[in-house]
Amino acid sequence: MTKILASTLVLLLISSFQGFAQKKAEVWRYEGPRVGIDLSRFLVPYLQKGKRNGWEIQADVPFKGNFFPTFEFGMQWFDDKRDGFRYTNNGTYARLGLDMNIVKFESMKDHDLVFIGARYGYSLFNQETEGIGYTNYWGTLTSSVPRRTMNAHWAELVFGMKGELFSNFFLGWTLRAKFPLSVSNDPNIKPYIIPGLGKTATDVPFDFSIGLYYRFPIFRTKNLPKPIKVGGTKHPGANDESNPNNQGSSGSGGLRNF
Amino acid sequence: MRFYLSIISLSLVALVSCSDGNGCYESVDTLMVTSFSVNDSIQIKTLVIKGVDRNALGDTLVNDQDSTLTKRYTLPLSLSADSTGFVLEVNGIKDTLYIRHSMMMIFISENCGFAPNYVISGLRHSAGIDSVKITDKKVNPKSIEKKTNDQNISIYFSSAAHK
Predict the structure, then answer these.
(1) Claim: this prediction has a pTM higher than 0.90
(2) Which residues of A touch B6 (CB under 8 A)?
């Protein structure tokens, strides 16, 4: 009896191990909205003239695997004291846009991006100037420009990278070319720094930002997004049926809630 | 990927941290370009210009002792009043000229600051000045860049009074 029981137990144990060995490990790709802060806003006061402080948050969500609708919002305070005047402005700004990843994801765990994109930006701010001094043959004049509420619209083209440092934490940078569309008029002084737009001395101001992001992994999929074809080029391995990571025909098929 | 990300990030920080230049390379002097003449034959032998009620040492704006048919000088306008008066002494004869204007301080650049911009709205002069022609009523820091034959106002003195 004892022998029968022991044999049965051994057989049961062996069969359960075989069951584990036959079960295939599932590979999932986790995606979700990403939120970050612009670290470069904290560096600017030490790198450029004038007291310029501010903060900016950035957010994007994945769409069809390679597209990322993006929203950015920030505030800026600027205080520039010079020999002949003191200029201050402060305000808020927002940008809405879309990024497109242009590199191939190497595996289900690869979330590194190289992207190009575009933005529309809007800023609402106040500016004033005081302590304006000027001297000529007739004497010295001290005057000021009263506080005025201004706004600005602009478009941006962006290029950047985002790399996953460790699980769900990303570090990225963005290079921006900005194209002012309109700036409200102040008869005394054209604003030389606009929150969100930057310096207006050049026709196309350039800017960069470095962001630290966290992605909320609230979606998972078994499909690796296919790379975007640029001009009909074929990415190596894009149609490779033997690649175990290419499990679907589209990046969004098979998305499942966690 | 992370390596390239770090290197490019640091490079961009270094690149953008280069601050813009410190110098002011634009004109901040707002001066009214003025030409003086009598007629085609009478020379201006001496020209002395001062501001009205400005008789202290060093208040002379122009002291030209060269004899020429025409002269051209730049004159400053008042910063606080809505008109500016000059005493013009040509060949020993004194005349006065009052220029009515509006003024607004206009921003030039962050390195240069502000400068006054005027718009001439009227004139008043004494009898020894025959006429004053306003060629360009806008007086701003770019006025001093006007070419030799271009000016803001042209003053024609009476030939009878300034022989």
Answers:
(1) no
(2) 171
